[in-house]
Amino acid sequence: MAEHILEVKNLKKYFPIKTGFLQKTQLKAVDGVSFDIDEGETLGLVGESGCGKTTVGRTLIRLYEPTDGEIYYKGELVTEKNMKPLRKEMQIVFQDPYSSLNPRMTVADIVGEPLDIHHLYSSSKEREERIAELLKLVGLNADHARRYAHEFSGGQRQRIGIARALAVNPKFIVCDEPVSALDVSIQAQIINTFEELQQSLGLTYLFIAHDLLVVQHISRRIAVMYLGRIVEIAPSNEIIDNPLHPYTQSLISAIPIPDPDTARQKRRIVLEGDVPSPLKMPSGCSFRTRCRYATERCAKETPQLTQRSDGHMCACFNR
């Protein structure tokens, strides 16, 4: 049985927001998230914009300090004190390849910066060879090392970002919507690159995205987020074929189908109302204001993730 490389228990991240003169309110970006990821697995994390996906990813590797909760990497509690050596184990690929690369640095300096910080070479020749090796690994060539980020296309820039993340030989990578800013044809190439790297290097991914088809393709399991909470976790095909939570059902029904006849027969589940403000969360279940199954109990109690079948968990009283 595969071991958990990462365990997250009741993770919370609140941001203080100024709401008036000398008044602050806590914006609950992530509010009690728990999950685990097996070694060599890809866990997809999906949900609409603003639900807290990126905050989860950044908090895992402590780009944001968690408000509460525990994160275990290979059984070791991740703290501020032991985070520096763990930086070599846990890396991130950012969403926007246009803003995540320093325009004043050459590709060699961008990819080589992690090597400099962690002193992972003994000579300038070894550094140069390692940079060339990393660029080749992601589908670029050694000549690109002397150029600047603005000279590359979006897909090439994302490859540079992946090479930078791989520089320290990590085992776990947070992929924060790495293809959402790219053309569809380029998305497929980058997804294939991620899969090839996972096979050859034994990587583990948390793959954050809002495109369910992309996530289904690359992930073994999918977690669905809504307003800072995970509402459903299941194997990829199971969650697509048999969604239990009303929010997941709505997301699945919105997936476009290339066959017009099948698309006409498919029933679209349209959610009513707007997403509540994270500053004024509804009581009980955060989804109840848009849910067609909501009852009085939903307003009073917050549903917890419970096992419905083998590997399928859902946070809903009525499903």
In short:
The model has no long low-confidence stretch (mean pLDDT about 90).
Structure characterization notes:
This protein has 319 residues and is an alpha/beta fold. It contains 11 helices and 12 strands. The strands form 2 sheets. It has an 8-stranded mixed sheet with strand order 6-7-8-3-9-10-12-11, with helices on both faces. A 4-stranded antiparallel sheet has the order 2-1-4-5. A hairpin with a 2-residue loop joins β11 (306-309) and β12. The longest helix is centred in the middle third of the chain and has 18 residues, at 184-201.
Descriptive key words:
single chain, four-stranded antiparallel sheet, 319 residues, alpha/beta
Classify the helix fraction into a percent range.
25-40%
How big is the Rg?
A: 21 Å
Our count of helices gives 11
What is the averaged pLDDT score?
A: 90
Q: Outline the low-pLDDT stretches.
A: none
Summing up helix and strand content along with how strands pair, one would put the structural category as alpha/beta
Distance between the termini: 30 Å
Order of helices and strands: EEEHEEHEHHHEHEHEEHHHHEE
> What is the total tally of β strands?
12
Largest sheet: 8 strands, mixed
Strand order of the largest sheet: 6-7-8-3-9-10-12-11
Q: What spatial form do the alpha-carbon principal axes imply?
A: globular
Q: What is the percentage of strand-forming residues?
A: 25-35%
